[in-house]
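Justification of resources, computational component.

The compute hours requested in this renewal are based largely on the per-chain cost of generating structure records like the one below. Each record pairs the submitted sequence with a full structure-token output. That output is archived, and it is also reused by downstream analysis tasks.
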Amino acid sequence: MLVANGDKVLTVETVGFADRENKIAMKADNLFWIASMTKPMTAAALMMLVDEGKVKLDDPVEKYLRSLSSRSSG
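The structure output for this chain reads:
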């Protein structure tokens, strides 16, 4: 985990193993392949729009994606 503000890194912490079978501890500079990040990135972007007041979570999706409206498929 890394926490930073606009000026500096505030903290870096690691937990667990980089290699569980060989009991090799996690290090801050370990690299991992992270697959299928589309949903978490989209959710984070949506929540940023919510914070900015550009989207409301209670609105129907058709308000923003008109192609999903039942009226548009007729």
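The first strand starts at residue 2 and ends at 4. The chain is about 20% helix and 15% strand.
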